Description:
Elements: H1 3-14, H2 17-22, H3 25-36, H4 38-42, H5 57-71, E1 72-74, E2 83-85, H6 86-93, H7 99-105, H8 122-126, E3 135-137, H9 144-149, E4 159-161, H10 163-176, E5 185-190, E6 193-198, E7 204-207, E8 210-213, H11 214-217, H12 222-233, E9 238-241, E10 244-247, E11 252-253, H13 257-270, H14 277-286, H15 288-291, E12 294-300, E13 303-308, H16 309-316, H17 328-333, E14 349-350, H18 351-361, H19 368-378, H20 385-396, E15 409-410, H21 425-434, H22 440-448, H23 457-466, H24 469-474, H25 480-489, H26 505-511, H27 516-529, E16 535-540, E17 543-548, E18 551-557, E19 566-568
Helix pairs in contact: 1-22, 1-23, 3-10, 3-22, 14-18, 18-19, 19-20, 23-27, 25-27, 26-27
Amino acid sequence: MTQQELERCSSAITLSDMELFIFPELMYSLVLANIMSPRLWQWRDDPWFKGVRKMKPHRRLQRLKQYIMDHYVFNLDLETWGLTDQKRELARFSGFMPPEVIAQSNALFGYEGDAYYFDIDIRTHFGLDKYSSDVIPYWKTETVEAMDAFRFREGYATGAGECVSLAALYAAALFVVAGIPLEKVFLMATPLHSQNFVDVEDGVLLNNRRLVTKAMWFNGTPISGQARRALENERVSMVCHPTGYIHTLYPKATIDRQAYGQFSAKLRAYLKTRLTPEILGNFLRQNPRCRQCFVLRWPLHGTPRYLALEQAFSFEQESPYKVTDATRGKLLEMIPLETFAASCCPCKIVLNDIEGFVRERVIDLDDPENLNALKVKIGDACMNASDMVELLVRFCHTEPRLPVAEGVAFEEEQHPLRLTAEMTRGEVIDQVEAARGRNLTAELAFYAWRDLTRTPCAPFVKAALERNPVSVAGAAGLTEEEVLRRVAAWPSESIYDGAARLAQPDEVWNFRRGDGLEKALLVANVARGRGCGAMRLVLDAGTATVYADGRRVCAFPSAKTPAETDWAL
């Protein structure tokens, strides 16, 4: 294994956000690792999913979304996986991508996003302002096992994960549980976020723990406003699919060209809607700057009265009725009469008049003549009509900044994966294993799956002793004997099922449990952090022993049986 191969394979184990950015094939390797996990297949036995595959696709997605909401929370703190620094990581990746290119494209190395998306300093947003500017978080993308294990951490009642972890979990669960073909699921990563587009019906975005249909994308609510931010304000760094990936910074793509073209068209159709009175109202619900210019006209006892649109929307909060649909009348009937004004301020725009104009004219937002007519109708009494119409067009038509296909060399995998929702777990594993050697994503999936019967120990050891700072920092105030006593007292159970799937040291430390082999590696990681040189970890007769400087550092009973039993550390 070359040094570059070792770096890539070890990155499939730690799966940090920056590693996925440099090695985009790792994103789908994690999806495959989750698909191969027995944990996910156990979901199918949950009564919640009884008959799920007989449901229509959208109901399947709703069922899955609710399950994930009930069992996982979003987590993006600095404490879980610790800190590293820009200098170290830029040097590490310099053989794969120029440092200045990384800095321009990745949030951890200087990219700050659109001013609209982040009106605060990015480091303050992430809680990094208390550290030097060189310090960055070691955010790691969790496997389903690590996500589940959060329930063992103080302060967590359920599992947890960050946005990339949730995106990978969704993609795998859509296939395993909901029976959605993998080919219909596209994973999108921007410099600051990760989400999925599912090609069912009009399209669905899976955004952290939210499911966003096309109607929801345009409903103007605060939740939808949050869901829109990444695609509205950031470019998409990469798109991943079972056929491969396309990355905005790489001249080669492995994704099927036709599949990428269809995805691009479907996503653009999802992000575009025609202007109707309801969509106009939804836009104003989401845009406070424009909303303040409008009033509603409503007849009370045969006389027109006026209500600030801002006030009308405020009454929606505790009502099942909406300003923007056929229930408007019922909403306005609930509002006290004294809230309405007898006259309309000349600088205000009457929403009813603009709604009538939109309804009668059928405004085409791609037609300059139609847009000019709308500007004239709105007028400049409250704010510049051109500015308002520009914002309205952006609301109705988000143009995603996807990786450009022109000029990219599409080189599909030699052995593409052909997984179907009718396969058993064993058949899936066989298919992925059969693709090894000819499909890099399939090869790396077994590293992400932490299977040390199918992968050598060297990448696992490299990741363990170089990228697990939390256990080193956590043990800093303890003597060696105190570390051994604490680790020995934890339950001797791995968070990973199987005889040779292993946790990394920081997973053992965070979740306070581990097989003896995992505990021994954690002790070795702490020793390395204190300057210890070469060590050996030997697994013999059910005992994992670490040796250093001619002495036995620790020994723990182990039930794990990796292919290699003598590890150079």
